[in-house]
Each structure stands twice: as structure tokens, then as C-alpha cells.
Specification:
Layout lengths: L6 H16 L10 E8 L1 E17 L2 E5 L4 E6 L6 E2 L4 E5 L2 H43 L5 H40 L2 E3 L4 E6 L6 E2 L4 E7 L3 E8 L11 E6 L6 E9 L9 E7 L11 E17 L4 E3 L2 E7 L5 E12 L2 E6 L6 E4 L10 E4 L2
Parallel strand pairs: 1-21
Antiparallel strand pairs: 1-20, 2-11, 2-15, 3-10, 4-6, 4-9, 5-8, 6-7, 8-10, 11-14, 12-13, 12-15, 13-14, 15-19, 16-17, 17-18, 18-19
Length: 370
């Protein structure tokens, strides 16, 4: 048996189905809420900071090298050793210098002997001349004999002068040999600390080749590099705050003591030397950043507690006009007590969730918690 559906019945069936679908309730999405304290970003004056980086050095440092060629016999210090002024630090082989000194000293003795003999001859010639003068008054000698004795006395006197000059030259040579012998011992130029040992026993030392580096004990300096566009803002006696890369929370009050008069032609920058206070945290060779106050500017700040870290990004939950939180990334600047400067990502007068902790508040309506 065939069942035939008429057009009306089909239409009624479709209408019935449509009516059933139309009666289904609509699904609505409700915004979740969360309670939190709310703070506001604001604009205020902040110091204009000029920053310059550099390396910490001793005020005085010396690189010791030999002044004569010789084999290193002893290196009496190591890195980190304290030394006193005049202390022997390196000993070179001095055989050649000792031989030269002994030869020079022998030359001095020979010259002194020759001088003594010449002086004896001169005295004898002078006494003979005196006797002949006495005889001349008695007319017992001829003029020819008198002239001969006078010439011998004058020649003897001239030989004494020549021998004295030779003795002086021999003494000068001996003094030079003694000085060269002294160069085989390298002495500390001042009290300080050995910062580099560049040679070991057996090495060949020669003029200009560094063997040791010694930093003077006492005041340390930061040699900061300042761009030529900023150097006009810095002057001698200016105060600076110095932070160490290894301890960014530790700040040291420094004073500008010297500014290089000429810029580096390659980098167009100047070296500014900043005296640092005595501190056990400071060591030569450390890297630091100097901050110079250079007027004031307008800055946007927020409480540090409103900033959260999401991975490596600094963020904040910012409320829109309906009080719904949106996570926004920020670029931060310097910290000022409990406030932190926002370089980009916020405008003054925006509301932020304070101390959101690890909660995910994005898309949630924030009810202000008192």
C-alpha cells in the first residue's frame, strides 16, 4: 500500500518541526567576575638620568717589564698578592750584568792607579821646579835648564788632569754597569695588589714585554664611556650613582674627578673617570653603570605591585571602560621607591589590577575590593 502525502500535510509537518526548533531556549555567555584591588597610573616628574657604562680600575696601575734582556729566574708573587713599595717582584739572570760591573770596577781601579802615579810624578816635577827656581835666584842654573824643568812640571800636571778624566769616565761606566745590574730586579713602584702575572721562570724577558701588572692600593675609579652628544651635561665634581652588573641592587656614590679632553675619533666618545668609595664589594675589572642626574621630565608611573611577569614579559591587567581586565605588555623604566616608570604600554589615568599574583584575570569583570 502506498502512502501519499499531500502538499498541505507536508507543509504542516514542516511548520510543526519549525515550531519545535523555535521553542528551544537561547544560550547566553555570562562574564565572570573577580575581586581585586585597583590602582591608577599617574604622571609625575622624574629625574632625567644619563647612563654610561665602563670598567672599574685602580686610580694608578703599572705594567712592569724588563729594561734589559735576560732570562727570568724568579717570579716572587702571584695574582692577588699584596705588595709594598720597593718590594722585589721579579729576578732576572744577572750574570752578564755582573761581569760588566766587575770589568768596569777593574777599570776604575786601573784608572785610579794611573792617576795616583801621575800625581806622584807631578809632585816630584813640582818640587824639582821649586829647587831650580831657588838655584835660578843664585844664578846656578842656565835659562835652558830652567825651561826644561818647567816644561816637565807642566807636562806632569797635564797628565794628572788626563788621568782624573779617565778615572771619572771609568767611575761613570761602573755606575752604568751598577744600574744595569739593578734592572735585573723588578721592584713594586707602589703599595698595591698584583692583578696579572704574565711570565714564569725560564721565560726570556726583554724591554717592552709585560711581566706583571700591579694596581695601587686605595681608591678605585670607574672609567665610563660617554657619548659626545651627552658630554656637555657632565662636569668635574658632579655626583654619580654607580651600579655593578653583578649586584644591580647595590649603588655606590661616586664623584667625577677627570674628563678626557679629547674624544676617541673612532667611537666619538669621552672617558669620564669617577672616584668610588672604599668597599669590599668593589674590585678592579668589574663592569659598572654610572647614572648622572640631568634635570627632570614627565613620566608615567605605577605601583610595582601592579606589574606581573609572564615569561620574560612585564605585563599588567588594565581595566577597560566596562571594568573588564585585559592583559597588556609594558616596557618598564627606572624604579622610584615603590613606583616603577612605564615607558610604553600605558597612559596616565588608566586603572590596573593591583597585586594580581598568579591569577588569570584576562576577560574578567573586576569588582573593586576595598
Amino acid at each position: 500500500m502506498k502512502i501519499v502525502l499531500t502538499g498541505c500535510y507536508l507543509a504542516a509537518s514542516v511548520a510543526t518541526m519549525a515550531g519545535c526548533h523555535g521553542s528551544a531556549p537561547a544560550v547566553s555567555t555570562a562574564v565572570q567576575t573577580a575581586q581585586a584591588r585597583v590602582v591608577e597610573s599617574r604622571q609625575q616628574q622624574a629625574p632625567q638620568i644619563l647612563r654610561a657604562t665602563g670598567t672599574i680600575h685602580a686610580r694608578e696601575a703599572a705594567t712592569l717589564s724588563a729594561q734589559v734582556v735576560g732570562r727570568v729566574q724568579q717570579v716572587l708573587v702571584h695574582e692577588g698578592d699584596g705588595v709594598r713599595a720597593g718590594q722585589t717582584l721579579v729576578v732576572l739572570d744577572d750574570a752578564a750584568q755582573r761581569a760588566a760591573l766587575e770589568q768596569a770596577q777593574a777599570g776604575v781601579k786601573a784608572a785610579q792607579g794611573a792617576q795616583a802615579a801621575a800625581e806622584t810624578d807631578a809632585k816630584l816635577a813640582a818640587s824639582t821646579l821649586d829647587r831650580y827656581r831657588q838655584l835660578q835666584t843664585e844664578k846656578s842654573v842656565s835659562p835652558q835648564e830652567m825651561d826644561e824643568v818647567s816644561r816637565r812640571a807642566e807636562a806632569a800636571s797635564q797628565r794628572v788632569d788626563a788621568m782624573r778624566e779617565q778615572t771619572d769616565a771609568a767611575r761613570a761606566q761602573a755606575s752604568g754597569a751598577q744600574t744595569m745590574l739593578g734592572y735585573t730586579r723588578l721592584l713594586a713602584p707602589f703599595a698595591g695588589v698584583v692583578t696579572a702575572r704574565l711570565a714564569d721562570p725560564g721565560a726570556l724577558a726583554s724591554p717592552g714585554v709585560p711581566l706583571l701588572q700591579v694596581d695601587e692600593a686605595g681608591t678605585l675609579q670607574l672609567d665610563a664611556t660617554v657619548d659626545e652628544s651627552s658630554i656637555a651635561a657632565i662636569h668635574k665634581g658632579m655626583k654619580a650613582q654607580v651600579a655593578l652588573d653583578g649586584s644591580p641592587s647595590a649603588m655606590f656614590a661616586g664623584t667625577v674627578t677627570e674628563i678626557d679632553p679629547a674624544a676617541d675619533p673612532a667611537s666619538h666618545s669621552f672617558v669620564v673617570k669617577i672616584d668610588l668609595p672604599a668597599s669590599g664589594q668593589l674590585r678592579a675589572g668589574m663592569y659598572g653603570t654610572a647614572e648622572f642626574a640631568n634635570g627632570v621630565r614627565q613620566a608615567i608611573v605605577v605601583p610595582r605591585s601592579a606589574v606581573v611577569m609572564r615569561g620574560s614579559l612585564a605585563c599588567a591587567y588594565v581595566l577597560d571602560g566596562e571594568g573588564i581586565a585585559q592583559l597588556r605588555s609594558l616596557t618598564l623604566g627606572a624604579t622610584q621607591g615603590n613606583l616603577i616608570e612605564v615607558l610604553s604600554g600605558l597612559s596616565a589615568g588608566e586603572k590596573l589590577v593591583d597585586a594580581p599574583s598568579d591569577r588569570d584575570l584576562a576577560g574578567k569583570r573586576i569588582e573593586v575590593q576595598q
